[in-house]
Structures are given as structure tokens and as C-alpha cells.
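Why do we care about 3D structure at all? Because function follows from shape, and shape follows, mostly, from sequence. That is the central idea of this module. The next example makes it concrete: a single protein chain, its amino acid sequence, and then its structure expressed as C-alpha cells.
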Amino acid sequence: MGVKLIAAGMLLWGLGYGLHSFMLPVHLRSIGCTPEQVGLVFSAGMAAMALSALPGGWLADRFERRRVIRISWLAGAPSALLYYLARDHRLAAVGMALYFGAQAGYPALNAYVASAAGVGRSGSTFGIVNAAFAGGMVAGPMLGGWIAGRWSANPVFLMSFALFLAAAAIMYFLPAEGQVDGGAITKDSAAPAGAVEGYMELLRHSKFVRFVAVYSVCAFAFYMVQPLFAQFLADVWQGDAAAVGVLGTLMSLGQVVITAAVGKVADARGSIVAVAGNMFVFIGAMLCYVYVPSAALRLACMFLLGGFMAGQGVIYAGVGEILGPKAGGKAFALLSLAMAGVSVVGPYLGGFLYAGSPARPFVVAGAIAAAGALALARLGIAISSVRGGEVGQGTGTLGTDG
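And the structure:
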């Protein structure tokens, strides 16, 4: 029941986020922001997410996870309201920082979902939750683009705010963590028994640290270009607000389909290997989107661009793949911290490169992502070869005593 409620909340949140997320960079440009300032707005969000990660892990293992989830979702809702009020990049940056800073609740959310995953189903369980978010985003970008083209971006931000509040309200119906799968355990504990107690112990786990480091390289490459897909479509391919909406919808639809596929492969072969393979698909789609002039092929590339976020939805299962029952909230927090930390300068760097040549940041990101994906694949294969057929079972041990 808990996973279903989280999936329902993610669906509404994804719809709210999808309404404005792809349009926001274009909107910021329309109110006079430079590409560097747009990048600065997104960098502010990455910085806030990095700063919130370690406190988020502490909260997940110290307090009732349902309470942490509820408060964090409610805290993130006003971000869209700040976009509505923004007249330059500064207030928009505050809104972005609020949105990503509220992800302090994500270690608790991931640990809660992990405790609900059945044996050998961690990859697909995380996939379902993240596919629900992407499912909400399928309709959001096209609807947001249509509204913005017909009226303005302002009603879009207000609608997003309302949907965020509705999603946060659903979190107040979450059952106690031990009751997620209807089991006999009724204790609503914070941290699972046997979980790693401190961050220092995690940092001494060499395979976990290597896993976090190499995936963070991939995350850096993506966040460097994330705000640029819509800008490239508008500036180079001469797309209007409706076209930007189509981009967002196709990427979200791709995320839904690819998440399901990657989740299934993750259960069978290990999440780290599955995500590494998926990264190469994303890189090819990104370069095709930038360099191939065919509009029809570009639509297919837009669909495949959703692959990165599909992989990011499943990669959290890799925490349990490596740590097993020691995967508490702090482990998820360290992964989030690393991804956000290395990506703080990514959007600004992307904006700087884009100002010189629109295609340049995508080429740089492709090279960085390829290096990260190769290292991730090697790590995943090494872990799979050691654990053999037990990889899927390992991912299912996350927090089962929670």
C-alpha cells in the first residue's frame, strides 16, 4: 500500500513538475536572463540538493521516515509559486534551491521504498515509483506548452503549485513502514536493524565509494546539459512553446518505458550493469538530437533522451546491491550528495559553453558520460561476477527489518 501511495504522489508531482520544467529555461530567457544566468538558476538547485543530502540521511535514520517524507514534500511545493513571482534569475534561483533542497526527504523516501521491495525486486520497485513520476510528466510538458503559448507561463506555475500540494497531501496517508507490505511487523522505526550507523563507515567501503564516484560522473554530464535541451530546440531548431512541450512529453514517455525495461534488466543482471548500458543509449540519443537535422529522427531521439532519468530512478537499487542490509538512509544520502555536489557547477558550465557554441556542451557532456558509463559497467560486472546469481537477492535485502 505504501509503494502505491508513493507512486500516486509521484504521479501528481510529476505532472506538476512536467507542466513547467521544460518551459522554465525558455521562460527565463524571455524575461531577460542570459544562458549563464539560466545555468546559475539550476546550479543553485544542485547546490541546495548537495547541502541537504547529509542532513537528509541523518533525518532518515533518526526520525520516523513517514514524517520526514511528508514535511519535505510540503516544503518543496512553494517552489513553483516563486517561479510565478520571479522577474529575474534571482528569485527563480531561490525557487530552484527550495525545490531541490526539499529533497532532503529523498533518503527517507528511498529507504522507505527499499523496505517495501520484495526479495529480488528492488530494481523493479524503484522503477515503478520513478516511472510513476515520469508518467505524470508525460502529459505535463505538452499541456504546459499549450497553456504558455495561449496565455503565458504564469498560470502554468500556479497549476504546478496546486498539484504539488495535492501530491504532498497523499503522503499523509502512508502506512507505518513495517506495514508497507502488510507484514506482521508493526514497528514504525527510523533505521533498519543492522544499518550502517555513520557516514565514516560508509566512506571506508571501497566498492560503495567507487560506485558513488563513477555514477556521479554520469550525473555531472547530464545536469550540465539538462537546461539546454529546451534552449537548443528553441534557438537552433526554431521550436516554439508547443514544440518545447512535445520535447518534454516525449522525454517523459521515454522515461516511463525505459525505466520499466531497465528495472527488469536490473532484477536479472544487476542494476549497475543495467544503468551503465542504458547510459550509452542516452549518449547516442543526445548527439543525434543535436546533430541530425531530420525532424522525424529528432522525435525518436527526444524519446530516448528520457533514458538518463530512467537510469537514475533505478540506480538507487545499486546501493543495496553493494551494501545489502547495511543500506540505510545515510547510504542513499551519500549517493545524492555526490550527484548533486559534482553537478553544482555543471549547469553554469553548460550555459557558459552554450553561449560560445550551442553544440559544444553536448559534445563535452557526451565524452564525460561515456567515461563514466565505462567505469560503471566495469564495476557492475565485477560485482555481478563475485555475487553471481545473488545480485537480485542482494538488492531485495534493503532495510527489510525497518
